[in-house]
Amino acid sequence: MLKDAFGRVATDLRVSLTDKCNLRCTYCMPPEGLDWLPNAQLLTADEIVRLVTIGVERLGITEVRYTGGEPLLRRELVDIVARTAELRPRPQVSLTTNGIGLAKLATSLAGAGLDRVNVSLDTLDRETFKRLAHRDRFEDVIAGLEAADQAGLRPVKVNTVLMRGVNEHEAVPLLRFCLDRGYELRFIEQMPLDAQHGWSRADMVTADEILALLTGAFELCPDDLEERGSAPAERFLVDGGPSRVGVIGSVTRPFCGACDRVRLTADGQIRNCLFAREESDLKVALRDGATDEELAERWIAAVRGKRPGHGIDDPSFLQPVRPMSAIGG
Ligand code: SAM
Question: Which residues bind S-adenosyl-L-methionine (predicted)?
Answer without folding.
Answer: 27, 69, 120, 191
